[in-house]
Amino acid sequence: MKIYFPIHLDGGNRGCEAIAKGTAVILGKPREDLVGLCSNLQLDKRLGTNKFVSLWQSPLWLKICSKFYYKFKSFFIKDKSELTQLYFECHYNMFLSKIESEDILFSTGGDMLCYGNNEVIYTNEKVHVRGLKSVLWGCSIGQKDLTPEKIETLKHFSLIYARESLTATMLKQELNLKNIVTFPDPAFVLEPEKVELPDCFDIGEVVGINLSNYVLGGFDFHSSLGKDVITLIDAIINLSNRHILLIPHVMWNNQDDRIVSRIIYDKYKNTRRVHLLDSDSLNYCQLRYVISKCFIFIGARTHAMISAYSTCVPSVALGYSIKSVGIAADLSMPIDTVVDSKQYHPGALTKAYSYVVENATEIRGKLEMIIPEYKESAYELREIINRL
Q1: Within a 10 A sphere around the Cβ of 297, how many other Cβ atoms?
Q2: Which residue from 361, 5, 327, 333 is spatially nearest to 187, judged by alpha carbons?
Q3: How far apart are the first and last CA of the chain?
Q4: Angle, CA 171 vertex, CA 169 and CA 176 arms, to 5°
Q5: Residue-level pLDDT, tens digit, the chain, 388 residues
C-alpha cells in the first residue's frame, strides 16, 4: 500500500513541508510508500522533504504538452469553471493514474476547503469514481465555507481527519457525517532543528512576528489591522527594551510574507530594534527552533503558530478562518489570544499582545502541561490508517 499526496505543492509554503514531514513521522512508513506531487523539486530537496516523502514532478514533456493543450482548448472554453477543471485535468491526471487499487489518496493542505471549490474536489472525485480510498487529512472547514460541491465530495472521503474540534463538530452536526476523527495537525509532532540564532537573541527578549497579506488585506498596512501593527511596533520600541524579529513563513508568489516583512524592516531598521530573519535559507524545523526562542510570538500563518504552541511560546494568533480559533480552543488557550483579522476591531492586536505579556508565565505553564499528551495523541492515527 502506498499513500499519494496530490496537493503537497511545495515547501515555498513551509506549512506544506511541515504537513508532509509530520505525516511521515506519524505513520512511520518508509519514504517509498509516501508519494507527493511536487511543483518545486529543487526547493523540496534543499528543505529535506525528500528524506520523508518520495517526490514526483511532472516530466518536462508533459508540462509542455499540457501548456499547449490548455491554451488551445481555452480558445473554445469561455466558462471559468470549465477552464479550472481543464487546468486540474492537465496538472493532476498523470499523477492520479499512478494510484492502484490498494493505495490511498491523502488530500492535504489543511484549510484548502476554507476557500472556493478547488483541486480537493477534483482529485477526490477522480479516485472516488475508480472505487479507491481517500482521506481528507488534517483539515479545517467552517460552515460558511460549505458549497454543494464540497458537501458532495466530503461524503465520498473514506475518512475525514479534522485537526481541531470546531471543524469536527460542524461536519457532524451540519452534514451528519460519521467518518470523522479529531487529532492535532501533523506538524505538531516535529521537533525543532537547532540553527545559529540572529544576534538579537543575545541582547534580550525577542518578540517574533509573522505577517501575511491574508490578515493585512493586502501587501500594505492601510487596513485597521495594518495600522495597529505599526502602533504595536512603535509601542514595543518606545515602551520596552524588547527586540522584534520578523519571521516570513510562506514564500510563494502572490502571498510572499517577505514583502510585508521587508516593508516593516525598512521602516524601522535605523532603530536597530527590528530584525528580519532570512527564512528562505531555513527549513520548517529550523524556523521552529528560532520561534521557540522568542519571548512572545505573533503569527498569521497557522503552521508558524503551531511551532509556537508546540514549543510552549505564549502567542497571539492573527486568525482569518475557523482553524485559528479551533486549534487555540483545543489547547485551552484563552480567546483573548486570538485576533479575528477578518472582522477586526481597532485596538484588538495591542489588547491581545498586552494580555499575553501579562499572562505569559501562566500561558507557558498551561502549554507545558497540555502539549506532550496532545502531540502524542497524533500517533493514534497510525493504527487508524493501517485499519483503513
Answers
A1: 27
A2: 327
A3: 11
A4: 105
A5: 999 999 998 999 999 999 999 999 999 999 999 999 999 999 999 999 999 999 999 877 777 777 777 777 777 777 778 778 888 888 899 999 999 999 999 999 888 999 999 999 999 999 999 999 999 999 999 999 999 999 999 999 999 999 999 999 999 999 999 999 999 999 999 999 999 999 999 999 999 999 999 999 999 999 999 999 999 999 999 999 999 999 999 999 989 999 999 999 999 999 999 999 999 999 999 999 999 999 999 999 999 999 999 999 999 999 888 899 999 999 999 999 999 999 999 999 999 999 999 999 999 999 999 999 999 999 999 999 999 9
User: Which grid coordinates are listed for 333?
Assistant: 488557550
Cβ count within 10 A of residue 377:
14
Distance CA 248, CA 315 (A): 16
Domains of the chain listed by start with CATH number: 3-190+377-387 (3.40.50.2000), 199-374 (3.40.50.2000)
Q: What is the CA radius of gyration of the chain?
A: 21
